Amino acid sequence: MLTLSLAVFLKVYDPLILFSNIRQFICLATIGVMLYFYANASLDTIDTFLNGRDTEWYEEDYQACRDLASLIPERERDQVFSFSTDMIWFEVNQILPCNPYQVNLQFFIALDPSIEADLTQYLYETPPKWLVVGDSFEGEIPSLYDIVFAKYDCICSNGSGNLYLLRDD
């Protein structure tokens, strides 16, 4: 957007005489506002491209995801449900979650409260064997957390989340 507005500005005002009319001032002001808001993010992106990423942080995060997934038997990896966790967990482990609302569930529930009722019914009638749950789950959706707490045992926790296993009742 910034590049396009700059190109249009230079095309329209050739030769460039700054502030010769109000339209030119508005174009320059718009470009200045965009530079002010987007320059820092753009510089970060350029720096990441030129200097690479902090791979140590990524590797630690990836390893935490792999560590949790290593506890799930290979044949049961299609029975993993998630609450309040990032999709990176599934991407790293090459697992497809068995629920349609992997991330931002609290926002989906706010848009359509029937989703919470459907998930409550699902957890009672056909509970998945494995849950990957983020640390913020209890505060985000307390009613579903109570069901998880009653039916599941947390078998492992690390920086990528908490792994719950369905109790044999």
Protein described:
- It is a single chain.
- The N and C termini lie far apart (58 Å).
- A hairpin with a 2-residue loop joins strand 3 and strand 4.
- The chain is an alpha+beta fold and 169 residues long.
- The longest helix is centred in the N-terminal third of the chain and has 30 residues, at 22-51.
- The protein has helices at 2-12, 22-51, 55-69, 88-93, 105-111, 114-125, 137-140, 142-151, and strands spanning 80-83, 130-133, 152-158, 161-166.
- The model has no long low-confidence stretch (mean pLDDT 84).
- 56% of the residues lie in helices and 12% in strands.
How would you briefly describe this protein structure?
With 169 residues, the chain is an alpha+beta fold. The protein has helices at residues 2-12, 22-51, 55-69, 88-93, 105-111, 114-125, 137-140, 142-151, and strands at residues 80-83, 130-133, 152-158, 161-166.
